[in-house]
Design brief:
The protein is built from 14 helices and 17 strands. It has 364 residues and is α/β, with parallel strands linked by helices. Helix 2 crosses helix 4. The two termini are 27 Å apart. Bound molecules: the ligand C[C@H](N)C(=O)N[C@H](CCC(=O)O)C(=O)O and magnesium ion.
Length: 364
């Protein structure tokens, strides 16, 4: 099975409610879809959102990186040589992790199709169902409480509360949600870099003293402020998770050695795809550090790849934040994993099992 061509499409899906974080507000999923064609007629699917505020990647940069740097190295390569292909993708250029992820996901899809097996089985197998949280956007307190109650009614037992806008209001936001859903859902906070280290310690200690039990706090301070991450980690009981601070395996090793966080958020769009995500899960397992598998505002193609990884690497990946498709008004992907509110199941279709993507717009 040899790679012959790489084509693109644009996927746009409106969200149920605007997605608001300390970094950005968006009202739709808008992702580049990558289709890797082969001489056997098999097509591998990949996907990448343009999360410029986190990865630096835009729709234009994703397409250019693939067209000019990645695709020329892949045409003619045999899918059976998976490691050689992932090395070609990772070595094609610096950064551009979303472009690399989209192509790697499509190649792993083909690799599964080549051997007629679902990806999770080729990665080691595991229990086919995982449970995700759902994100509550940062907003007025009443709206966040209403959104939290609606999520609990839908069966979500873990809420990822976005904060990081205003420290005083953030504390009130979390207290109000805690009072509304106590005993029915775990609370995770994500400040998306919105606090200083001292603000984070103040907010978390205030919440802890008020009896608000938090499962974790994600990226309380600026991505580059590893000393700030360690400052917070050393001073609060709530486990601290690194998201924007860590992209690849080397950064994870450095962060663990610094003891700058307790948990690592693995996202395919930061790691450049599955090969580095697998490395990170193995490194974390070696050090006894837990991981979350997360996503950007992504549709079901790349999230399907992330689910297969989470199933196969359940020893290291103990927490799941794969709610991108649940936040969208509909799922345009036919095949892939099955979403049933908080439960996501892999199927035994070969590769990622994606059959069709509805409403794909052409890319010039
Ligand atoms: C969608 C997911 N639950 C999430 O919250 N991801 C964010 C970043 C997503 C984005 O801005 O597209 C995160 O964990 O920081
Ligand atoms: Mg985050």
């Amino acid at each position: 099975m040899k790679i012959t061509d790489i084509q693109f499409g644009m996927l746009r899906v409106p969200l149920k409610t605007p997605f608001k974080t300390a970094l950005r507000t968006v009202d739709r999923v808008e992702d580049i879809v990558v289709m890797v064609h082969t001489d056997t007629g098999h097509v591998g699917y990949g996907e990448a959102p343009a999360t410029a505020v986190i990865t630096g990647d835009t729709h234009g940069s994703i397409i250019d990186a693939i067209r000019q740097y990645i695709a020329p190295r892949l045409i003619g390569q045999d899918v059976a040589n998976l490691n050689r292909i992932t090395q070609s993708i990772q070595g094609a250029m610096e950064k551009n992790s979303s472009a690399k992820a989209a192509v790697e996901i499509a190649v792993y899809d083909l690799w599964g199709q080549l051997y007629g097996a679902p990806l999770y089985k080729l990665l080691g197998g595991g229990d086919p169902v995982i449970t995700t949280d759902i994100t509550i956007s940062v907003d007025y307190i009443d709206k966040m409480v209403a959104d939290s109650l609606a999520a609990v009614e839908r069966g979500f037992e873990s809420l990822k509360i976005k904060v990081g806008k205003d420290i005083g209001v953030d504390i009130e936001r979390v207290k109000a949600i805690h009072a509304a859903v106590e005993g029915r859902a775990l609370l995770r906070l994500d400040a998306n870099q919105g606090w200083t280290a001292k603000q984070a310690v103040y907010a978390l200690q205030t919440l802890e003293d008020a009896g608000v039990k938090l499962e974790l706090v994600e990226q309380p301070v600026k991505a580059r402020d590893l000393a700030g991450m360690r400052y917070v980690t050393e001073r609060v009981h709530t486990p601290v998770m690194a998201d924007e601070s860590v992209f690849g395996p080397q950064e994870v090793i450095d962060l663990i050695r610094m003891r700058a966080a307790d948990i690592i958020n693995i996202k395919l769009m930061k790691t450049g795809g599955l090969s580095n995500a697998i490395r990170i899960a193995d490194i974390a397992s070696l050090y006894g550090v837990e991981c979350m598998i997360g996503c950007m505002l992504e549709a079901a193609i790349s999230v399907t790849a992330a689910v297969h990884l989470a199933v196969a690497k359940a020893d290291a990946i103990t927490k799941v934040d794969l709610d991108g498709p649940s936040l969208a008004q509909f799922n345009p992907v036919d095949g892939g994993v099955i979403f049933d509110e908080s439960e996501i199941s892999v199927t035994d279709a070969p590769g990622l099992g994606i059959r069709e993507i509805r409403g794909l717009e052409p890319v010039a």
